[in-house]
Specification:
heterotrimer; A: 297 residues; mainly alpha; ABC transporter involved in vitamin B12 uptake, BtuC; two-stranded antiparallel sheet; 13 helices; 2 strands; 72% helix; B: 309 residues; globular
Chain lengths: 297, 309, 251
């Protein structure tokens, strides 16, 4: 594989994490414009830990996810009463607060005669873990996909379990779920925290793949894109967001002949697709039909 | 005496900031009205509102650069461009998509946003373009205070437009139909009102408002970039949420509050906190008072809150 | 079994329930009737915890359940149907019924994630049995949103049977149904729902009330104006007045 292909495929893998994170919130019935915040938190925390404090990558990633998950728990609890557009804008405000906050974080230490650390808008470079440990881009891509498969396995497991049904109950009609004995608040927080952790995981991978991050990477556009991936692929299964990511990054990179008109073509394609498939390609009904077809044959 | 003079100077600064904030906030208020009308009529979010205005402005600036169009022509082209783009967005993202598929409409309007961005970049490659200044320039001094002429025009036009919108909504059949659809689109249908026609007309109205607001903002700054779309969408949304959805006075107050918060924090805390403060206030407002500063009644507020976007 | 003590509820300036007190014996079937807007659904919403009460107490099985969340109340063995039908439209018929088990106190998070073969199998059988009881066994793999209204109301009944609650609220179980469908529903309720349970039925169709209830409470403008046997209640002057001359179908 050429370096270019490795970097595109790695990018797809890392964006898949945040798309899955947005998808989980869509399934629980909420629109979040702010999943990029957890992605950014994961990236910054794990980047600081490896580059500045010399922690091993796995431990830095665990802590990055933990902080992202805790942030999701706090924001989730504060926004419990909100729904619909109110929830969407509250998450947007939170994410922008994080991004703008990172713009004014200046913490640097001297390592081997060089200053390392977040430097506000100048970004945070020299996250050199993969160079120091002689990890090739291909190997790192493998790590990304092993983790992605791990997350997907959990999601598939949950979707087949009764917990998956509970989550869909809460997403479809929280009032009815509550009237049937489901503790809606608990499951909503559970899903929110899990979504935060997944986004944090993607972010911590991203920091070490890119070796350079800056607050503006984690802007609203990243969040809205991941939301769009979740919906385009379909709300019926966790494969959906992957299809969305594949379509956007894969397809767009694939047809470079459209250079200059790519977004016109792609935007139109998505708009037309949503007219005919308002809950995405693999929505609940199509997933239901596919399942029945599989059972029969 | 020295202390008194210092205090006086501080007071002057504070009041001057408020004046500037009100001037810019007036334009925010217009943008928020655009969002609130569309959300009221459709219960769906049009993320492409800002990018439509941005594209309209790019048409205007293109005419200015290549045809050397006069300011009033630029204004007319900006408004016309915004309306045409608005109609395109309405047909593709809202009219064509089932009414209950609210998330699909929102994501679709986002996809079209990407399209509009690229059209703008194709039309005028590069990032920043000059936008022609208004018919007027300079400023006026009121005692120790200074007001830019552009700001004064913005404020006057905003007041005129708000009065106009108010009259349109409460004195015409179209306004009555629009309010009926906002209350309940089903009930309106049984009364013989065609909701999709009203939505279409509302889009044109909102695009007109947006085109004017966009022109005022850009002619004050005298430059335009493709990022203007993002900026407009989020300023408008924030102002709408601050004031409370579904109320025209709320939208204006939200806009003014946002403008004043921005200018005050920029003055006292520096540029870095200008945007931050708006988000902090908005987040706290949503968490502590979900209905906004001037929201609707409790029942309607809950109804809006529980409706999925 | 269930006693409502001076329940008050207001929405803004409107008092929808003004001091309702009703005592319901175990195993009884009580009809709850009244003109539109008299507070019947509001009363159910207060008892099942969907709305908080402004004053008064709800005591169920000797325990004060006022102010508990609706999920906690549901877990204590109270179930309800909805006037304007609430179902999970994108789940199949069987999944809709089976989903009702997920909120039972028997499940903890571990069991929800990893499954418990015994419990799951038991619940699955109960769901299928419940569908048979209401005559929807053949529709089990259809998506719920594709069913016609009478079958959706039956699905709500199946959901209750599967959970086997001790106390049931039926909110207009025959709403929007034809005469024949209403009779079939009355039969279903009398045969399958009310035996062995305490039930409260809200309904405008008096034929159904007369068929299944032994006692009828009449609400008007948030006040309990009558509490009698079905054959007596509709001849009471205050009830006739409440309906303002509206002819009462007395079966």
């Amino acid at each position: 594989m050429s370096d270019y292909v490795v970097s595109v495929v790695s990018n797809m893998g890392m964006i898949a994490f945040i798309a899955l994170s947005a998808y989980i919130l869509l399934v629980i019935g909420e629109i979040s414009f702010g999943q990029q915040a957890y992605f950014g938190i994961g990236a910054y925390i794990s980047g600081v830990l490896t580059a500045m404090w010399g922690w091993p990558l796995w431990l830095a990633m665990v802590l990055g996810c933990a902080v992202a998950g805790s942030a999701a728990l706090i924001i989730g609890s504060l926004t419990l009463r909100l729904s619909g557009i109110y929830f969407a804008i509250a998450t947007l405000s939170f994410a922008e607060m994080i991004r703008l906050g990172l713009l004014s974080v200046h913490v640097q230490v001297e390592i081997d005669g060089e200053l390392v650390g977040p430097e506000g808008a100048e970004g945070f470079g020299d996250i050199r873990w993969i160079f120091e440990n002689d990890v090739t881009p291909f190997e790192f891509m493998t790590v990304i996909y092993v983790l992605l498969v791990g997350v997907l396995t959990i999601l598939f497991w949950v979707e087949r379990s009764r917990l998956g049904t509970v989550i869909r109950m809460v997403g479809s009609d929280p009032l009815l779920a509550q009237a049937q004995g489901i503790d809606v608040v608990f499951y909503r927080l559970l899903a929110t925290v899990f979504a935060g952790i997944i986004a944090g995981l993607g972010g911590s991978l991203y920091a070490h793949f890119a070796t350079y991050i800056e607050p503006n990477v984690f802007n609203v556009m990243l969040g809205v894109h991941s939301l769009a991936y979740g919906l385009i692929g379909g709300l019926g299964t966790a494969v959906g967001p992957l299809i969305g990511v594949g379509l956007d990054i894969g397809f767009l990179e694939g047809v470079r002949v459209f250079q200059g008109y790519r977004m016109i073509a792609f935007g139109g394609l998505v708009a037309v697709l949503l007219i005919f498939m308002p809950r995405g390609i693999l929505d609940e009904e199509r997933v239901h039909r596919i399942k029945r077809w599989l059972e029969r044959s | 005496m020295a202390i008194e003079r210092e205090l006086f100077a501080k007071m002057v600064d504070f009041v001057q900031n408020c004046i500037d904030g009100i001037m810019i906030g007036a334009a925010y208020g217009l943008l928020a009205i655009g969002f609130t009308i569309i959300f009221g009529v459709m219960r769906r979010l049009n993320l492409s509102f800002g990018p439509s205005i941005m594209l309209g402005a790019f048409f205007g600036t293109w005419a200015f650069l290549t045809l050397n169009a006069a300011p009033w022509m630029v204004l007319a082209i900006t408004i016309a461009g915004t309306v045409i783009t608005g109609i395109y967005v309405e047909r593709l993202c809202f009219w064509a998509i089932r009414r209950d598929a609210t998330i699909a409409s929102m994501v679709s309007s986002f996809a079209i946003w990407m399209q509009l961005d690229e059209v703008a970049i194709l039309m005028l490659p590069g990032r920043t373009y000059p936008f022609p200044e208004m018919f007027v320039s300079g400023g006026l001094n009121f005692g120790p205070f200074f007001v830019r002429a552009e700001h004064l025009v913005t404020l006057l036009v905003t007041i005129l437009m708000v009065v106009g919108i108010r009259l349109l909504l409460y004195r015409t059949t179209f306004g009555l139909a629009l309010r009926a659809v906002s209350e309940s689109s089903d009930a309106a249908k049984y009364m013989g009102i065609n909701p999709s026609r009203i939505t279409f007309l509302a889009f044109i109205l909102v695009s007109l408002i947006g085109g004017v607001a966009g022109y005022l903002l850009l002619a004050t700054d005298q430059q335009v970039t493709p990022y203007f779309g993002l900026w407009v969408t989020f300023k408008g949304l924030i102002a709408m949420m601050l004031g409370g959805m579904g109320s025209i006075p709320g939208a204006i107050i939200g806009g003014l509050v946002l403008g004043i918060i921005e200018t005050q924090t920029q003055w006292y805390l520096g540029n870095a906190f200008k945007d931050m403060s708006a988000y902090v206030v908005l987040f706290l407002a949503l968490v502590l008072r979900p209905g906004g500063l001037l929201g609707q009644g409790i029942a309607e507020r809950q109804d809006l809150a529980f409706r999925r976007v | 079994m269930l006693s409502l003590e001076a329940i008050c509820k207001r929405f803004g300036d409107v008092e929808v329930l003004s001091g309702i007190s009703i005592e319901i014996e175990k195993g009884d079937t009580v009809g709850l009737v009244g003109p539109n807007g008299s507070g019947k659904t509001a009363l159910i919403n207060v008892v099942t915890g969907m709305h908080g009460a402004d004053a008064g107490r709800v005591v169920y099985g000797g325990r004060d359940i006022t102010g508990l969340g609706s999920h906690q109340i549901s877990r204590s063995g109270i179930a309800r149907t909805f006037q304007n039908l609430r179902l999970f439209p994108r789940m199949t018929v069987l999944e809709n019924v089976d989903a009702a088990h997920n909120g039972l106190p028997g499940y903890n998070l571990y069991q929800l994630i990893f499954g418990d073969r015994e419990v799951d199998k038991n619940h699955r059988q109960k769901s299928e049995w419940a569908l048979e009881q209401v005559g929807l066994a053949n529709e089990r793999d259809r998506l719920a949103k594709t069913l016609p209204l009478p079958q959706l109301r039956r699905l709500e009944i199946a959901r209750i049977l599967a959970r086997d609650p001790k106390l049931v609220f039926l909110d207009e179980p025959a709403g929007g149904m034809t005469q024949a469908e209403t009779e079939a529903m009355a039969m279903l309720i009398a045969d399958r729902v009310t035996p062995g349970r305490t039930s409260i039925v809200v309904e405008h169709k008096m034929s159904l009330i007369a068929r299944v209830c032994r006692r009828v409470c009449v609400l008007n403008a948030g006040i309990l104006i009558a509490d009698e046997k079905p054959d007596v209640v509709f001849n009471l002057p205050q009830v006739i007045e409440a309906y303002l001359g509206r002819r009462i179908v007395n079966a």
